[in-house]
Amino acid sequence: MLRLAIQKSGRLSEDSLKLIRECGISFITSSLKLKTESTNFPLEILYLRDDDIPGYVADGVADIGIVGENVLVEEGMQHLAVEQLGFSKCRLSLAVPKGDPYEDISDLQGKNIATSYPKLLQAYLDEKGVQANIHTISGSVEIAPSIGLAEAICDIVSSGSTLISNGLREVERVFKSQAVLIANGGLNAEKQEILNKLLFRIHAVQRAQKAKYILLNAPNEKIAEISQLLPGAKSPSILPLAEEGWSSLHSVVNEDDFWEIIEKLKEAGAQGILVVPIEKMII
Ligand code: ATP
Ligand code: MG
């Protein structure tokens, strides 16, 4: 049995649970429980505060965990990272009050900066050769300038709307983060094997997220031209339609590429184009 630690409630929780479910791993959740066991995979899930997850994994209380890179690196535990997971993307940024005449990082020399990420901030200031006074606070960082605690803040940003609603302006990007899978370095062979199975499933889910299945109809004389436009997993499947002289082409395309080729497909004579999601993809 492998023990996975995820955030109990917060910005990582929902997507962490979704990823595990998409891997075909079933379990019953209850807001009151602190752990659950999967009914169809040798996995136990522990629900914890996100800050505690790297420490528990390092100590072996949990075997693996899902946490933000910002927390992992702040706690000096980056050696536990196994793989980036592509969700909970955010950045750690420096921000100043909207009316502040900030021009560059040297303007922060000697200033007071409030943050919950003192180590990441210190590393950034050191790299830029700036000395400032870091005030570590555990929450509500964005109100620090308005209550006179600091002239600048360094906090997590995704859309930037929290900064704007607090009259702040983002001026420097200190660190880019996303959710990451972490693992204890000393897993026994049995646990390592379960982790490998889990990673195999995670990869299949991740690959499928970017890929779309595309179906389209084309006159037979255009098949060669259209096939060129479809990069596909291999080459497209071609099936004859009931209507004489027409075929149906099926292929897999990357979502980003799809928008690039759609006009070209239409110009080449493709009709009835369908793009459908893929649930799992094993190559
Ligand atoms: P806990 O109670 O577990 O300590 P928390 O308040 O410290 O929770 P959350 O605000 O839930 O943490 O954020 C957890 C993680 O989600 C952050 O460390 C960061 O990696 C990521 N995150 C935070 N804010 C955002 C956001 N706006 N968009 C996307 N990801 C975010
Ligand atoms: Mg936390």
From TrEMBL:
What residue stretches are annotated with the ATP phosphoribosyltransferase catalytic domain? 49-203
Compartments annotated for it: namely: Cytoplasm
Histidine biosynthesis HisG C-terminal domain: which residues? 208-280
Q: What is its EC number?
A: 2.4.2.17
| Metal-binding keyword on record | yes
What does this protein's UniProt record list under function? Catalyzes the condensation of ATP and 5-phosphoribose 1-diphosphate to form N'-(5'-phosphoribosyl)-ATP (PR-ATP). Has a crucial role in the pathway because the rate of histidine biosynthesis seems to be controlled primarily by regulation of HisG enzymatic activity.
Record protein name field: ATP phosphoribosyltransferase
Q: Which organism is it from?
A: Pontibacter amylolyticus
The gene that this protein is the product of is hisG
